[in-house]
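During data preparation, a discrete fold description was generated, and the record follows.
___
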Amino acid sequence: MAKQAYWLSDAEWQRIEPLLPRGRRGAHRVDDRRVISGIVHMLRCGARWRDCPEVYGPYTTIYNRFNRWSRQGIWTDIFYALTGSTGMYRSASIDSTYIKAHRSAAGAKGGPSTTPSVARVAGKRPKSMP
């Protein structure tokens, strides 16, 4: 089964195009519609940025644009224009499959696995031997 690429519709693009930053210095930006479609696709599927389909361009461009615009607060305006909600809530949920437990978190007592016998420590002969 082939992956389906997500593309912004013309109506969605018309709503968010005025919100995009213009007149910035630096390198010429690649096609905004393609990059934003790639970002929305990756956010919807929940995959790693590295697994971004090639039709959206290099995954580094997709990630860098998302990261840069997140710091600038541009995505809250875009999400509100697309969905009517900023997507920010006061509560958070953590998926426990992501949290890694320390190797000593199993509850076992730490320290050396063998303990010397009391007789050996006291300098006496062990009682279990004749």
Observations:
- The longest helix spans residues 32-45.
